[in-house]
Every structure is written in C-alpha cells, then in structure tokens.
Design a protein that fits this description.
InterPro entries: HTH_animal, RT_dom. The chain has about 600 residues and is of the alpha+beta class. The protein is built from 20 helices and 17 strands. Among the domains are: about 70 residues, no CATH class; about 160 residues, 2-Layer Sandwich (Alpha-Beta Plaits); about 55 residues.
Length: about 600
C-alpha cells in the first residue's frame, strides 16, 4: 500500500511539474510579445525606454517558487503575479460580439478613459462657462447688485485661459520636436538619410496614424445596438462587460421575483401629447430608471440593481437628510464599524497582541441583499431609535418629527422606469439614494447589538462595513456555526452567509493566522484586472500621479512582511506600465510617498515595520 501511495504521489508530481512548465512557457511567450510591442515613445512625450527596461527587469527576476522563502512568507497561489488577468486589462465579452482590433483596444482602456477630442472639449467648455456665468450672476442678484461688464470680461478671459491650457500638451511636443530637429548636426542627418535609403527597399516605415476615437465609438455603438447587447462596467473590477439584453431581462425578472421589492405599475396609458402636457419639464426633474451592474466576480454573473435618480423629485430631500444623519450614525456606531481595510488592520493588530492563539479563527459574514431586504417602516423606525438614543430633539433647527416624516416620504416614494414599464419600490430603499445607506446602517446597527455584545463578552472582535461583517474569536468552528444559525433567526429579512477559517478575505484585505501570528496582505478578487486610469487619458496630471502614490501606500499598510510588500510593489509597477505609466512617474511617486512619511532611506527587511 505504501508503494502504491508513493507511486501515485510521484506520478501526480510529474504531471504537476509538466503543467507548470507549460504554463511558464505560455506566459513567457506572452510577456516576450508584450515587451517587443512596447512603444519607443508615449503619446505624451515621455520616454518609454525606461519603462520597457523596467518591465524586462521585473520579468527576468526569478520566480517566487525559485526564491528561498521562510515559512512566514508563504502565500496561496492566488497571489502569484501570473494569476488570472495579470497580463493586461481585459473586457468580459459574454455576448460573444465580434470586435475589431481598434474596438477591442478602446474597450480595454476601460470606463475611466477619456480621449482627446477638441470638438467635445470646446462644446463642454462653452456649456460649463455658461453655467458658471449664471451662478455668478445669481450670487450678484442675491446681493441686489447688477453683474455688469466685469463678469463678462472674467468669463471671456477664463475661456481664453482654458483654451490655452487645453492646447499646451501638443504645443510642448511641437516645441520639443523643433528643438530636437534643429540641434541635430548635418552629419547625423545625412547618416540617417543614407541608412533609411539603404533599408527602404527592405522595410517601409509608415508614420503612426492618430486614432479617431470618436469614429470608433460611433461604430461600436451601432454594432452593440445591432447585436442586441448591453455594455456596462462590472461591479468590482471596473472593466467593461458585454452581455445580451435577454440575459439581463431574465436575471432582472429573477431578482424582482426573489426579493419582492418592486411593484409594477404598468405603462402610463396616456397619449404622447397628453403625457407631454402632464409631465414635468425634463430639465427640472426626471423619473429614475433602473439599471444593473454585472457581478463578474461571482458565479453566474448575478446583477446588482442601481436606481439612477439624479433628478428624481426626492433626491434633494434624500441628500439633505443624509448629510444630517450620517455623521450622527458614524458617531454612534464607531465601536462596531470600520471604513477601510487599514482601520481593521489597526484594530486587529491591537487585539492580536493579547488574544491571538494558534486555534484563533476568522469569520466573514455577508448580508444578502441588504438594501432591498430592509423593511421600509422598520428602517425609518431605526432612525427614530437612533435619534432617541442620542437624546436629540432637533437637528439643524429641524424637529425630529419632521425628519422622520421626510425620511418616510423618501423611502415610500421610490418610482422608476425599466424596460418600458413603471415600478414602485415597496420593500427596502433605492440603491442610489443617499439616505438608503444611512437607514440600512441604522437597521443593521440595532440588529447586531446582541451579536456584537456576545462576541466581545467572549474576548472576540466584531466589526461591520455596510453588509460585510468580520469576526475573530477563539471558539470552535462548530460552536460558531451554531451561533450563526441562531443569529439567522433574529429577523426574517436578514440572511447571513458565513465563511470561516484561519485565512479569510475581507474588503480588499487578506488575513491569515499562521501558528498564532497575524499576517495580512492585499486581497484581489478572482475577477481582478490590472486596470487603472490610462496615462494617455485626458485627465489632470495630478490625478494620474496620485494613483501610484495611493496604491503603494496601501501596499505598505496592508503587507505585514517585507517579502509580500516587494511582491505587491512588483505587481503594481507592472500593472502601471501596462496602463502606459512612464517608469519615471512611477519611481517619482514611489519616492514621494516614502518622503511624505519621513522615510529617507530605501525599505529593507530590517527597517520594514
């Protein structure tokens, strides 16, 4: 029996090594193709040779399996840089629509990309300046003063300034090109001409043609319309998703049937002329509409419903109440809620110094469909309960009774259109209305009181971020599962689904218990794509510079060991290079981040804390 077991293990390891070798070969060829296709120059005039060299340097580093690692640095395979989606930001084409190379490239640039279109910029500049002028004049009229010519002069000067700023990049490139051309000596030029003439018969070098993004967008819209396809950005990875209309319709009906949160009111039954006479002007208010974000990171690609009501009649009331109440909730629930993974790390590190053991378990709990499952009456009642607990009689010169009445009005008057039908939400709140988040948080706060107290009385840790709950405690797994079953009976509207183990993922944080020691690193969902705002997008430069800064800061805060920090920095650099960030900008922002926190020397194993 031992010999059979030994032979089986040997054969299994041989197959495993062969599969790894094949995977390494495929990935090596793909990376080699990317390196060879790297541009010599970026669109914005930055030298890309350094970026290409850095990409090669990191590619040629020994793989993590070849490095000598201690036990404290082991991580699951999901953290390998050759994981799914690493090589390039992708799109999810479940509709199987045929795309040209240009269309595919445009979609790969992602939802955040804005292409340089002077006509669009000119139209938007005119609109924005007209809006600004109206606002300035309104403030003058409030003071009973006529605006006069100074306002006209200011707007005219601002228009000229914006035009000049918009034209700076191309002007700079032209000046740089002219200087380079005049500085070249005649000998160099003649040698270049001779070499080009000698190779002209072999290779024809064609100038790079500027892409007409506007034309590609129009063609893509037409193709998507003909293919009966919906284009959406995904819920988590924020890349584009292409899905069939009938699939969206089917999943929408399934979701509405499951939650029972929406009541169909049918069509309006009016003639077009009658409807136009009775409806409010579109520039004043607008009926909300329902759309879905595909959850590509979950099996079956379920949908997240979003009710877009930016001009809905109740949106201003919702924003006003949310501004009043959210700060009060944050104050009341500060001991049981977190706002980020970094805040959870700080709480965990403090707790682990005293309570962490080898058998300590972590548990993450997801609340199913929180926004649509909170009953409207009970949700508003939880607001009243919060205000009573804080012993407030009025907020901002507004009586509590008025706040409750307005909240009830917002929650019970969520109307929207979808697929030619009109609906009223009869359960939960609109995911898109600001007040819905505060009411859901209040409802969960009073629901979880008994759970949080039970965990803390057992020297455990309990925190929640909206509909995600984190628990760590020194209980047997069987006992914790029994308690979760009991908690599921507290309220028929709240259903908890748990994940328990020595390693869990919460928000963007991966937490592990290794022999009584706490280890943390960055967690990326299986649907993760290395997509950041493309550097060639027409966004302000400070926004692009902030991305390497913030992402490296997150890596340092999340990674508990120096080796995991190096791995995350390596992945981050490659992802930024793939999104056309110059290596010069990346290094500059990495250094700026360290300098801001008074780190004047390179990070090493010895000084990484």
């Amino acid at each position: 029996m031992r010999q059979i077991t030994k032979d089986f293990r040997t054969q299994a390891m041989k197959l495993y090594v062969q599969s790894l070798g094949r995977e390494h070969e495929l990935l090596s060829n793909e990376i080699k193709r990317i390196i060879e296709g790297f541009p010599s120059e970026n669109d914005d005039g930055f030298d890309a040779e350094a970026g290409c060299a850095a990409f090669k340097q990191y590619h040629e580093l020994p793989s993590r399996g070849q490095r000598k690692q201690s036990r404290t640095c082991r991580r699951p395979d999901s953290y390998s840089i050759t994981g799914r989606g690493f090589l390039a930001p992708a799109i999810i084409n479940q509709a199987n629509i045929k795309l040209t190379e240009q269309e595919h490239h445009l979609l790969k640039l992602g939802p955040q990309f804005i292409f340089d279109d002077p006509k669009t910029a000119a139209r938007r500049r005119t609109t924005e300046l007209a809006t600004l002028k109206r606002k300035i004049e309104a403030r003058f009229f409030e003071k009973k003063v006529r605006p006069g010519r100074p306002v006209e002069q200011f707007i005219a000067e601002l228009d000229v300034l914006l035009q000049n700023l918009h034209n700076i990049p191309s002007t700079k490139k032209q000046i740089q090109f002219n200087r380079t051309r005049t500085n070249k000596s005649f000998d160099n030029l003649s040698s270049i001409i001779q070499s080009s003439q000698s190779s002209q018969s072999q290779v024809i070098i064609r100038p790079r043609k500027k892409k007409n993004y506007g034309r590609i967008v129009k063609r893509l819209k037409y193709k998507i319309h003909l293919a009966n396809t919906i284009l959406r950005k995904t819920d988590k990875s924020k890349v584009f998703h292409l899905g069939k209309v009938e699939h969206y319709q089917k999943k929408s009906e399934e979701y509405m049937e499951k939650t029972k949160a929406y009541q169909c009111l049918g069509q309006n039954g009016l003639l077009k002329k009658q409807y136009e006479q009775l409806s409010i002007k579109p520039n004043e208010v607008e009926l909300a509409h329902l759309y879905y974000l595909p959850k590509a990171h979950k099996p079956g690609t379920p949908l997240r419903p979003i009710i877009s009501g930016l001009k809905h009649p109740t949106i201003k009331i919702s924003k006003f109440l949310d501004d009043l109440l959210r700060a009060l909730f944050d104050q009341m629930a500060s001991n049981s809620t977190v706002t980020s993974g970094f805040e959870l790390i700080q709480k965990l590190q403090e707790w682990s110094t005293v309570n962490m053991r080898q058998d300590t378990i972590f548990c993450t709990i997801d609340v199913t469909d929180l926004y649509t499952m909170v009953p409207q009456a009970e949700g508003v009642l939880s607001l009243k309960k919060m205000l009573d607990q804080l012993k407030l009689k009025e907020i901002g010169k507004l009586k509590i009774e008025t706040i409750i009445r307005l909240s009830r009005f917002v929650m019970t008057n969520n109307y929207f259109s979808y697929n030619g039908q009109f609906y009223r939400q009869v359960r939960g709140g609109a995911m898109g209305s600001p007040l819905t988040l505060t009411i859901s948080n209040c409802f969960m706060y009073f629901f979880e009181r008994q759970i949080a107290n039970q965990i803390r009385n057992s020297c455990g840790l309990y925190f929640r971020y909206i509909d995600d709950i984190f628990i760590t405690i020194n209980w047997p797994v069987r006992h914790l599962l029994k308690q979760i079953d009991r908690w599921n009976k507290f309220d028929e509207n709240i259903k908890l689904s748990a994940n328990i183990g020595s390693t869990v993922n919460f928000l963007d944080l991966s937490i592990e218990n290794q022999d009584g020691q706490l280890y943390t690193t960055i967690f990326q969902k299986p649907s993760y794509e290395p997509y950041y705002l493309p550097f060639n997008s027409i966004h302000p430069l400070h926004m692009k510079k902030n991305i390497p800064f913030a992402m490296l800061l997150r890596a340092i805060r999340y990674c508990s060991t120096f080796q995991t920090y190096l791995n995350e920095r390596e992945k981050l650099r490659m992802a930024l290079l793939l999104n056309k960030y110059p290596n010069k900008i990346i290094d500059e922002q990495f250094n700026n981040m360290l300098l801001k926190f008074n780190v004047n020397e390179p990070l090493t194993v010895n000084n990484y804390v």
